[in-house]
Every structure is written in C-alpha cells, then in structure tokens.
Amino acid sequence: MIKKIFNGPMLVFILLLLLFFSLRTISSAVMDVEQFQQLYYVLIAVNLVILSLLVFLISRQAWRLLHQLREHVAGARLTLRMVIIFVSLAIFPALVVYSFSIHFIQRSIDSWFDVTVESALEDAMTLSRSAVDEKKKTLLRQLRRLSDEILVDLKTLSVVSLSEIREKSGTYEVTLITSRGRVLGTSSIEKGDIVPDIPSSDLLLPLRQGRDHVVLDLNDDSNRMIRVLVRVKVDSNDANDFLVLQALAPISERQHRLAATVQQAYSEYKSLVYLRKPLKTSFTLTLSLVLLLGILSAVWAAFSSARRIASPIRDLAEGTQAVAEGEYHKPIPILNDDDFGLLIESFNKMVRRLSQTHNALEQSHQQEKRQKDYLEVILGSLSSGIISLSQKKEIRTCNTEVSVILGVNVNQFHGQSLFQLAKEKPELEPLVRWIMTSIQNNIKHWNEEVTISESDGRKNLLCRGNALAEGGYVIVIENVTSLVQAQRDAAWGEVARRLAHEIKNPLTPIQLSAERLRHKYLKNMQGKDAETLDRLTATIVNQVDSMKEMVKAFSEYAKIPELKVQTLEIESLLTEVVDLYRSNDKLSIEQDLAISDTLIEADQGRLRQVFHNLIKNALEAAADRDKICLKIKTSLLEINNQCWCLLELSDDGIGFPEKLLPNIFDPYVTSKPKGTGLGMAIVKKIIEEHGGSITAENAPEGGAKITIRLPVAQGQTPG
Amino acid sequence: MIKQRQSKLHSNGVLFTIVTMLLVLSLIFLFLFNLLPVFTTQGEFQVSSAKSYIVKEHILIDADMNMKFSEEVAEALENGIPLTIKVEVQVLRERFLWRDRMVKESLQLFELHYHPLTDIHEVVNIATEERYSFHSRQDAMAVLGTIRGAVLMNKKRLTKIHQYHIRMRTSLDISRLPLALRQIASLSSSWHLESPWFVWAIALNDRDNGDSQ
Q1: Mean of pLDDT values over A222-242
Q2: For residues A696 and A680, is the Cβ–Cβ distance under 8 A?
Q3: H or E segment at A580?
Q4: What pLDDT, in 10s, does the model give residues A445-495?
Q5: I need a surface site. Which of A67, A143, A232, A276 has the fewest CB within 10 A?
Q6: Does the beta carbon of A127 lie under 8 angstroms from any beta carbon of chain B?
Q7: Pairing mode, if any, of strands A693-698 and A704-711?
Q8: Is the ipTM of this complex over 0.85?
Q9: Is B176 within 8 Å of A33 when comparing Cβ atoms?
Q10: What are residue A417's phi and psi, to 5 degrees?
Q11: Are B10 and A268 in contact (CB < 8 Å)?
Q12: Any idea which architecture A565-711 has in CATH?
C-alpha cells in the first residue's frame, strides 16, 4: 500500500499542492509582520523538505528508468525519449518566460528611478544643506563675536549680558553652562520659561575638542531650531574646564517645512533606490521558486506520462515475448479505452486465434503422431520389410522387419540413398541395383524376385515397388527363401516319389528277366557268345542294382518320416558318431568342443544320419589321398535372444567346386562320379526339419567347411 | 553491444544533465540571493553584562549591550531604511526535569532612523513613541546599548520557594523591515544579528544584585 502510494501520482500531486500553498503562505507571511515571525522559517523548511522530496522522487524515477535501460526492458527507450521531449517542451518555454520576466522586472524597477529626479533631489538636498550651513555659520560667527565682546570678564557676568547676546543675535534663548552641564545663567525670549534646554553630552564633544558646534534639529515639530554651541574660555589651567554658550535660534515654519520635505523626499527616494536591488532579488527569488516548482512538476509529469504511455507498449512487448515463448493463455489487460486499448484488444484477438490455431495444430500433430505410431505398430508387426523413399530417392521410413530381412540396420540410413546399404553390405547390391534401376526407369509398379547370396546360403527376396503420388516410393520386401525352398523340396519330393514309383516297379522284372536269360541260355552257349551274354546280363543286373540304389535314395529323400524328438546332448551325439570313424586310418580327427552340457531337442537317429553323411562325404572326397584331417568345432551363438549351437566340420581337402557351391544342397548336385547327389540335400532337409540351418563354404585356408546351426532347447542359456 | 553501450552512455548523460541542471539552479539561487558566504564585515550583537536588583518591591535591570551592525545593515540605515532593535527579557521559574516556566516577558522595540539633512540618528521607543536624537551612530548605539534602572516586574509575583532566573537578548528585528527587503534579509546571514541569551539568577533581596552569565 505504502509502495503504491510512493509510486503513484497522488503523492507527488499532494506534494506539489503543498508546495504551491506553502509558497503562497510564504508570500502572505512576508506581508504580515506577525505571520512572518511565526511562520516564515517553518514554511521555508517545509518548502525545502517538499522540494527535496520531489527531487528524490524524480531521481528515483530517473534511476529506475536508467536501470530499465540497462536491463533493456521493453518501452524504456520510448519512456526516455518521451521524458526528454516532455521536459524539453516544458523547460525551454518556461526558461524563455522566466528570462523575459526577470529582464522585464529589472527593467521595470530600474525605470522607476529617473536620473534627473535623483539629481534634482541630490541638488535640493545640497541646496538645503548649504542654506542651513550658511545660516548655521552666520549664527555661529555672530555668537562667537558677541561672546568675545560681551563675555570678556566672566566674574562680572550677569543675565543682562546673556540677554544682550540673545537680543543682538536674534535667538530666542541663550544659556551659559559649564562643561559638566551645570547652568550658570540663561536668558529666554519667553518670560515664564526658566528651564533652559540643556544640550546632550554628545553635542558637547566637539567643544571638548576645542571646536564650536552648530546643529539643526528638525525632527521635533514643537521644538525645531538651530542650536549654536560656542566654547568660552575660562581662566584655568585645566584644558577641559570651559564654559559653553548655547543659543537656540528659531526656524521659520516655511523653512522648516521645506527642509523637512526635502529631507523626507530625499530619504524616501534613497531608501527606494536602496531597496531596488532587494526588490529585484525578491521578485527573482519568487519567480525562480515558481520556475523550480514548474520544472520539477514538468519533470515529474514527464516521467509519469511517459511511463503511462509506455506502459501498454511494455505490456504488448511482454505479451509478444510470451507468445514467442509459446504462452497463448496470457491476455493483456485493457486499462484504457484509447488507441492503445484498441491495439491491445486486437493483439488479444490475434493471440486467441493463434492459440486456437496452435491448439488445432497440436491436435493435428497428436493425431498424426497417433497415426504414425499406429502405422509403425502395423508395419512392425508385418512379416514383410517396408522401406519408403523420398522424392530424392532417399530412405524416409522403414520398419524393423526390413532390417531383419536385409541383415542391415536400415534405420541408421535415414536420409541416405539405398546404395549406402549396398556399401554397408555388398551382398545386397543385386537387390539395390535392381530397385534403383526400376526407379530410374520410372516404372510405377514392379514385382520381382531377387536372389542374394549370403554367408548362410541364398536368400530369395520378393520385392514389390509402388510409386507414390507425391513422388516417393514404397518398397515391400518379403523373404520367400523358405517358401521357395519348400516349393523346391516339394517338387523334388514329387520327382523322387514318381521316380521311385515309376522306375522301381519295372526294375525287378528287368533284373529277373536278365538273370533268367543268363541262367537259361548261358549254359547253352559257348565261347564268345557265352562271354557276351554273361557280360551283357551282368551289366543289366548291375545297372538295375544301381538304379535300385538310386530309387531307394530318392525314396528316402521323398519320405517325410515323423521326427522322434527328444532332448539330448548334441555334443555327446556328435562325439559318438565321430568315434566310430576313429579306427579309420585315413582319417585324423581334431576336436574343439565347448558345449558339453548343451541340450537340444532333436531326432537322434536323423541327426546321426546327418553326421554320418557329412563324415562319409569328407572321406569320399579324399579317396585319392592317404590321409585326411577332420576338424570338429562346437560353440554357442546368441542372435536376437535365441541361443544356437554352432557345429563346424571342416577338412583339409580340395573343398567344394566353386560352380557347385551355390547349389550344393540341391538334389542331384554332386562332384562324385558315383554319387546320387542326394546326400547333402538330405542333410539340409534334416537340419531344416529341426529348425536349424546349414551352410557350405570353402575355408580360406583351404578345404570344405560345413556349418550347422541348431536351436538350443528352451531353458538353456549360453554357458 | 555497441547499441547497448550507446544506450548506457545516453542514459548516463540524461541523469548527468538532470543532476547538473539542479546543481546549477541551486547555485544560481544562492548567488542571486546572497546566500553564498560573503567576506564582508560581520555584525555582532552581544549582551556584555546585565544585573537585576530590587528597589521598592520592583525588580529593576541594568544592562550593557554591544551592538555592531554589519556592512549591509549599516548601508541600509544610511540609505534611509529604519532598523528595529529588539530587546527581550524573560523571567523564568526553574523546574526540575521540566521546561522552565515563563513568569514575565518584556519586549522593547527601538527604531533607529538616520536623517541625512541634519546627519542625525534618531532612536524611537516604539511603545512610548519617545524620540532621542544623536549626532553619531555610535552615540545612538551606545545609548541603545545601555539600560539603567529599567523596571521589569513586581517582586510580589515571585515566591521565595522557587528559583528564578532572568535571560536577556537583543536582536535586529527583520520582520519590521520594508517588504522588499524582508525576504532577502531573512535569507542572508548579514542580516541575522542576534545575541545569545544572557542568563542570570534573580536575588530577591533589596539592592542585592546578580551579575553572571
């Protein structure tokens, strides 16, 4: 409350009113003697206090403005500018009026005094003095002469002598007194007047110094006169011992009136001349005080007005800042119904609309975010990989599955070209090249199966692309490796079944017929014919046996026996099979086993067949060598929280022929002259039936390398 | 940065201008109204001695005062401005831990005129309108400064159970100066001629007088 009063205009207004009334009271107090004595200094003190308070308040305002300028508060510069303008507008005219008023007062007061009048008065005064002095001198000379003539012998002095002097001098009273003031005798024109007029002691001072003395007394109207004092010597050794002869000469009424008038006029004029300076000073003081009051009022009013005018601007600036910082719910209060009020109202309207737009935008953004999240969830749950490309053919969005399918974290390549994926993983180059070629050829829709070779085998990717209206593309990639494999397996199975069915049936009659021919006719033939028949029937029988073997193998491949799954230690099973071959002189086995307690769920017999096939393959591949080294290594691998046991079987043989390597697990692919080409295909089929995978490659140091990956049983963790 | 500095300089300049303006105005006022210390002959009013005594149940006062006018005051007198000399005498009853109570206050006003034609200094007792003429200012001041046997009050108004003291001072009464001079005189030190209070205790015995300060 107190702060509000101190900051508000009311205090200054009250102070100014007090100052105004105080100045008025000072003015009236100066006029009145009683008031002057009682009030003048109190009022001066009150004025000084009020002025000091005003100066303090103005300084406070100035300091606050300075602080605001330093802090770069909005509206501070405008306030400063307006203060300077207001103060200038108020002070300069006031100073002009002040200087003109001072000049006018000086000139006006000076004009009251005329040099001619002053000179005339001086002359009149001089003339009066001369006249009086002349009369005084005449009287003095006359009295001195009479004194010397008549008062020769003081011992015989009588009143007659004094009367003679009085009569001869024309005075109305003559008195003889001692230097100590004792009256020796007197003679007056008035008979009854026996009390002489005794001179005051100061009048006797010149006589003590040996001089006669004449004074004019005009002040007492009833007793105006010229007093002549003549020193009369006595016979004494003491210098201070003398007599005084006093004569009082009357002054005529006219002379007195004229002299008094001249003296009064001269005195009054001189006092006026003397008062000229204080009068000017007094007027100047009053004007200056009023000017000071005016200036202080103007300065304060300038501060107050400037602050009031700048206040809405400051509010607007703060409001703008708030809007800039995103605060839309802070309307500026409209204090005045003026132009600024209109402006603030418009600003508030604008802010309201901005707020509505912002809210709508926010809602739209939220909705978009929700839709995006929804889309991401859908895309994330899809088994297909999806990549969207921008107009610049850069990766814009993708789902998680595409990273799984391509084996590259595509999210890291946002805003980059698909070629960057190929750089990261060269195996993807055929896919990327094909996609980019399609895009560059402006094909709107495409659908193609692309095969890429990876370390774990071939991967068949079905890639579909669609051009978007805005210029981008959506690419859907599906991993159809399993499907293709399944289709191939089904086709081979069908072939095998048909072979088994169509070929196996006539083979036995052919063999029996060949054996019957041999048995029936061989004994009847001789020589070359018998030899030829024997050779031909033996060939038929052998080839039929071979065909039977082949049909049997196809039959096994086509057969889909039910897996007898059980939990087993994979390493034990592997070791068990390997141990069967330790007695073979051509084979040396090196083991690097590390998963002794790892369990898997598998069909023991089928896996045993896998290991037998692989080891036999190795032996068969090195049939022309004396000895072969088989390395067996086991380890654990964790991919995406799934634990796998890794079995690596490698030899130091010649390895797989490069041209067969991509299709090594296809049926009827073999490098052996007598092989059926179904061994590796069966191995792969068994491994895939167990949910695992198998890859074949040539080791960098030479020799073939087979890597089998089988899932570890649930509940097992990598040790 | 440059703008900030310019703004700072600008605002400092404004404050400096305001302060300077106020200071200059104050100096102008002081200069215009002779409020600055001026090295001129200073006047002095002093009660050099005073005593009281009782004659026929009345308390009478004898006092000697030195009155010396400053140059400004003497100049005003020579230029026909009448001066009023104020002589204040107060009788106070002493009170313990309390402000002394005034029993009697006497105020005598004397007007001093100068008549240029006759070169006479005239002293007028304003209360009685008695006039005394002197042919020099020194004589007039000497007479004004000498009080002999002035009756102050009746002794009966005082009781013996209390202690009393008298204080006396003399001053130039500027409130009776001409209007044009009054305001300036009130603000100028040259016109402030006032003696300090001269204080002495009252002895209530006949012809027994005190003379102390």
Answers
A1: 75
A2: yes
A3: none
A4: 888 888 887 766 678 888 888 888 878 888 888 888 878 877 877 787 777
A5: A67
A6: no
A7: antiparallel
A8: no
A9: yes
A10: -75, 160
A11: no
A12: 2-Layer Sandwich (3.30)
